[in-house]
Known about the structure:
Oligomer: heterodimer
CATH architecture of the largest domain in chain B: Orthogonal Bundle
Strand order of the largest sheet of chain B: 1-2
Structural class of chain B: mainly alpha
Radius of gyration of chain B: 26 Å
Distance between the termini of chain A: 92 Å
Shape of chain B: elongated
Largest sheet of chain A: none
Number of strands of chain B: 2
CATH class of the largest domain in chain B: Mainly Alpha
Helix content of chain A: 55-70%
Order of helices and strands of chain A: HHHHHHHHHH
Helix content of chain B: 10-25%
Distance between the termini of chain B: 57 Å
Amino acid sequence: MSTLDRPPPKVGMIKRAWNFILELWDVLIRPSSVFGLGVLVLGGFVAGVIFWGAFNTALEVTNTEKFCTSCHEMRDNVFAELKSTIHFTNRSGVRASCPDCHVPHNWTDKIARKMQASNEVWGHLFGYIDTREKFVDKRLELALHEWARFKANDSLECRNCHSAESMDITKQSPRASDAHQRFLFTGEKTCIDCHKGIAHRLPDMRGVPGWQ
Amino acid sequence: MTRKLAFLLLAAALAAGTSSLLADPLASALRGPTPLNDEGPAPPMTPTRNTAEREPRNYPEQPPVIPHSIDGYQIDINGNKCLSCHARARTAESQAPMVSITHFMDRDGQFLASVSPRRFFCTECHVPQSVSNPPVSNDFVDIDTMLSRAAPGGRR
């Protein structure tokens, strides 16, 4: 009876995986004896370009209004409300789409927001706000999140388009120019402090500062 | 026979009446030359007066008009944008006129701590003004002008 006939010793799943990792590591740290250095470098470069391109494309696809409104939660509630506001139709035809206000433009912040948004995908799959009633019940909480975000970043997403430096207050109504000079230019308040509900309907505003 | 003739005459008169009605547009300053059975083009929307300067009331009980634009101001069960400036506690910051104390009164004459629910919906009485020429002239005179005339209740 040779040793080949003996059944191999039982090896646990974790042990096998660990062995595989060790073997892979062995291959990875040793210089290649088959491919030339140029092939490896070029191959790595091309693979990198493809990976980065794909990643960025996917990121941009999830950053469109079409993607946002593909969920009925967005389409039937907040997007329907946006349509009647000045951020959707106005005299000059410049308009804001969902990510213009709700996704930071800065790369690291954007990635952080995208990771947070995975929670929203979870919520969609399990129907957290799949009816109008559930949405209305949750509306204050959702709005509070956005207000807190705008307050924390000094209304950055507003200022991506509306810059205080480029604001010609002589073209504004007396009321607006007065308020902007007193509160915006002095830094006492930020956009969201006064302009809540500018693009969507408001939740129950009892207890919100500045509201009755 | 006379009956039949009367019937015919009536029919003819009706036909003539309707055709003349359709053919002749009634001269009206409001309708313009549009025939009665047609709908004319809508006049263009006029901009809202947005000076933020108070306008005089034509009589003491008149709800003051809103001298600024209120586009997109939400007034419903969830909130009242007007009160963000005109509420008692907000007037120091906004320098806007405070809602009248009469608005704190309920229907039994009791004063409440804040705006009474029956006075909550501002635009039921207060309206913004548009910049346009009134299509119908108005010869309203206020009481002060009336009293200052030589003959009381004199020529209008």
